[in-house]
Amino acid sequence: MDSTIAAVLLLDGIGNGAVYALLGMAIVLVFAVTRVILIPQGEFVAYSALTLAMLQLGRVPGTVWLALLLAALTVLREAWDGLRSRRAWSATGREIARLCTLPVAAAAVTVVAAHHAWPLLLQGALTLVLVTAIGPLVYRLAYQPLADTSVLLLLIVSVGVHFTLVGLGLVFFGAEGYRTPPFWDASFSAGAVTVSGQTVVTVAASALLMGALYLFFARTLAGKALRATAVNRLGARLMGVSTEHAGRSAFSMAAFIGALSGLLIGPTTTMIYDGGFLIGLKGFVAAIFGGLASYPLAVAGALLVGLLDSFSSFWASAYKDVIVFTAIIPVLLLRSLTDRHHDDDE
Q: What is the pTM (predicted TM-score) of this model?
């Protein structure tokens, strides 16, 4: 390996690491707020890339039917809960409107956009809205009724949600793979190395989103409410913070981050209905480096995962995933030796 190849692999690792950093931060966020290990985070990535690919082909993406299906199930769930608790129909209607207005509206606009050649940026923005709207519906249907149960039960549910979303992805998108066009097809020369415009867009978008998340949690009331829920759910509830709203907000942000990651990685990776699983799993490895609690350590772990992924694909491409996932063993071993908590919920 000469310096040119090493520089190319370094750039590739940084680009992939930026995406893994976003996914790792999303997993840390959801776990901190809801105690859910979000295994289906990768499905948001796959749905986003496939939705944009379908719009590019002038076809109605399967995400539309998925959003409408989840919205219909949410209406039934809210109506049933309203009957059981004898809640006023006006309150039930407001809750249904709060959960279902955005996904239904986004699905309707997407159907219109599929038959018109919208610019790539507008299609990307519409994809972000549509996939983000799915996040709170998933939380409402699968996780909110079990919010106060053990972490182990939530993990089992998360595995079930993952397989359900993968199966629905096969139904709505089929088994064919797609690749989306780059958002910036320019290229820049840095000595003997060529940097693609898509890599610049990926790193810049990741950095901007990380900065926006920092400002959100540090400067806004909603961000501080999420931080309070992450620190002490019961204390936040006693102070008037709705843990249900916090959970939906966390899932909305995770879906948005997953959708953005799908748009960023789609031009460099052929995406299929279950292709987001390995990508999300590498984000989970990054989150493990941060102990599912630290955002900076998760970002650092993501860059390490990206570099391991890139260089191992050169030295031993058949074993690159094994090398990446093996890297968490010493981290888990170290944490098992230093962690003094024994309660499952801790």
A: 0.92
